[in-house]
Amino acid sequence: MPPLKSAATPVASVLAADARHTVTVVLNGTPRTGQAHPRLLLSDFLRHELGAHGTRVGCEHGVCGACTVRIDGVAQRACLTLAVQADGRRIDTVEGLSQSNQGPTEGRMTALQEAFRRHHALQCGFCTAGILMSLSDYLGRNPKPTEEELRDMLSGHLCRCTGYAGIVRAVMDVTGQAAACDTRSGEAAHV
Amino acid sequence: MKPASFDYLRPATVADALAALAAGGDDARVIAGGQSLMPMLNMRLVQPRLLIDLSRLEELRTLKADSGWLSVGAAVTQAELLSRPTLRDEVPLLAAALPWVGHFQTRNRGTVCGSVAHADPSAEMPLCLVATGGAVVLRNAKRRRTVAAADFFVGPLTTVKAADEIVESVRFPLAAAGSGHAFREVSMRHGDFAITACAATVDGTQASLAVGGVADRPTLRSWPLVGGALLSDLDAALNAFAWDLGGDDDQHATARYRRDLVRRIGRTVLEEALSCRR
Ligand SMILES: Cc1cc2nc3c(=O)[nH]c(=O)nc-3n(C[C@@H](O)[C@H](O)[C@H](O)COP(=O)(O)OP(=O)(O)OC[C@H]3O[C@@H](n4cnc5c(N)ncnc54)[C@H](O)[C@@H]3O)c2cc1C
Ligand code: FES
Ligand code: FES
């Protein structure tokens, strides 16, 4: 999906601080338009202006990773991005991960998400959306990361309840590098 | 934690950006990757009236190796530089140090020039620039000037860059044949700012060590090689360097621990650089 405008489209004049400006993004494949003051963060624009609440907000200074989304495909912090900077760009959030085909698997989770469920890679889920969006970019560039590489990438996310072991197991599983599952069989059989 | 209000400009050209910066004076700020500035805006540590966005200027998205230098433009991200296939041959020190700059997610946005402009005393890019003897190309609406890395950094978050100038590019010398390079740092967690970072370069005649995170700016010292080997009294030389760097106690580490890291990691990287000469 190409961006709506060229990524280099200049803003002809200054966007005034006290006015709301039209911002159009392609959110998970669908063009969406909202209004934003220049100081509005992309994380808040997605949640409050577009109603896409899947993206979480934790620290608002780039450390926790909860707000990570993909901008033109690349995983980045929504809390360190202004909504006006995202104008004309493709934004992918966790809502877009589930399968969007028109067949019987419509709305089902992706293999990565299923692996998270199987391996108990989440409890409260607050960190999960961000981690999934990082992985969806990272695994495209590095399809079979070593555990060390993966843990290095995960250093950009804080999970305060589950820890990282289940996340690492889930990714190793879904990238075909580990035994399918070491969780209770009842859970796994359900898939 | 939301920023205070500001006007926002996404200029069409570098000239437009520089004109707006000159007109805006101290109330204007440029934003590149935003990975240091946005946290400061969110925490309201800075409250500019006008934000000038350099990140989408194609003119600044330049990355080229040319007449002995690797030149990195202001819109080039840390991730873009790290993924350059020839980087390991061109500037091996950058290939070693870039993975330590923040995280995968912040390198996807943060720029090399932004890190140099920001001038955090423990940041890896300023350290590499000083270690390799690089230079900073500054530009305002009227002229361009080039400042040697050794003269650019003045103190914590302070450089010789004037308010109306941008860092247009930074230039790293291409590694010479027969030179060796090594980088190591100690931080609380991978991706955190370094408590102490050490970058060593060795060529045919001398061994150099640049240290970040101890003094108020990245600092370089060189010693001659003796018969192709490091000084016999290297420990004493490193000890003297560590005391000259000084360092302060802060919430992460004591000055004494930092000096000890200079003595220990300093020796390690110098030995590594000597042994991996190409
Ligand atoms: C969680 C996290 C961890 C991090 N860890 C590290 C780390 O370990 N090591 C490290 O070095 N950094 C680290 N950083 C900061 C690094 O990611 C930033 O990218 C870098 O410090 C600034 O580059 P930027 O492009 O993001 O600049 P911005 O944030 O856009 O700008 C920073 C400052 O430089 C000025 N500036 C930027 N570009 C220019 C230019 N071309 N000309 C003139 N002025 C300019 C701005 O006005 C501003 O004052 C971390 C950041 C985060 C969020
Ligand atoms: S909310 Fe963006 S990184 Fe924590
Ligand atoms: S699952 Fe709760 S923070 Fe990670």
Automatic annotation (TrEMBL), chain A:
Transmembrane segments: none annotated. Keywords: 2Fe-2S, Iron, Iron-sulfur, Metal-binding, Oxidoreductase. It comes from the Bacteria. The keyword Metal-binding applies. One of its GO terms (molecular function) is metal ion binding. Residues 21-97 form the 2Fe-2S ferredoxin-type domain. Coiled coil: none annotated. Pfam families: Fer2, Fer2_2. InterPro entries: 2Fe-2S-bd (IPR002888), 2Fe-2S-bd_dom_sf (IPR036884), 2Fe-2S_ferredoxin-like_sf (IPR036010), 2Fe-2S_ferredoxin-type (IPR001041), 2Fe2S_fd_BS (IPR006058), Beta-grasp_dom_sf (IPR012675), Diverse_Oxidoreductases (IPR051452). The keyword Metal-binding applies. This is 2-furoyl-CoA dehydrogenase 2Fe-2S iron sulfur subunit.
From TrEMBL, chain B:
Gene3D superfamilies: 3.30.465.10, CO dehydrogenase flavoprotein, C-terminal domain, Uridine Diphospho-n-acetylenolpyruvylglucosamine Reductase, domain 2. Residues 1-177 form the FAD-binding PCMH-type domain. GO terms for molecular function: FAD binding; oxidoreductase activity. Keywords: FAD, Flavoprotein, Oxidoreductase. It comes from the Bacteria. PANTHER family: XANTHINE DEHYDROGENASE SUBUNIT C-RELATED. This is 2-furoyl-CoA dehydrogenase FAD binding subunit. The lineage of its organism: Bacteria, Pseudomonadati, Pseudomonadota, Alphaproteobacteria, Rhodospirillales.
